[in-house]
Design brief:
about 140 residues, 6-stranded mixed beta sheet, about 25% helix, globular, 4 helices
């Protein structure tokens, strides 16, 4: 049932918040997985895992699950607090600087397919990305 998926997801995310670490638990995901947030859109759970693992400075980024809610049989919502440190520019393998963002809340809407697997994740931030970057502490490397 969707409630069983919600419970299992909550336990797994509290053990390792793969939204930041990139260490996804593939058993939760559909082969057709798609991700979208205000700045990024991609397909495939492997692409997602690699992307978040390289985006966030794993030593400095902090995140915690606030709650995991079953909206209906097709949607689970995860609210989590993120204090992110990201390498700049984010699209290059060599980082010239680090941006430490003030903590903000992310709401991840997880859409389930008929088999109870996550087929889509859409993230919303509690403030615009531009505001997060404007208030970030930038450190040159």
């Amino acid at each position: 049932s969707a409630e069983e998926v919600r419970r299992a997801l909550e336990v797994a995310l509290r053990e390792d918040l793969w939204f930041v670490s990139g260490r996804v638990r593939k058993e939760f995901f559909s082969q057709k997985f798609r991700f979208r947030d205000p700045d990024v859109s991609l397909e495939g759970i492997d692409n997602y895992g690699r992307g978040v693992a390289s985006l966030f400075d794993q030593a400095k980024t902090r995140a915690e699950v606030l709650d995991v809610t079953l909206v209906n049989d097709q949607e689970i919502r995860v609210r989590w607090r993120l204090a992110a440190a990201v390498g700049l520019p984010p699209t290059l393998p060599i980082k010239l600087a680090t941006a430490e963002l003030e903590p903000y809340v992310v709401t991840s809407k997880l859409r389930l397919d008929g088999a109870g697997l996550i087929e889509a994740q859409e993230d919303e931030f509690d403030r615009p990305t531009s505001e997060l970057l404007w208030t970030a502490k930038i450190t040159l490397r």
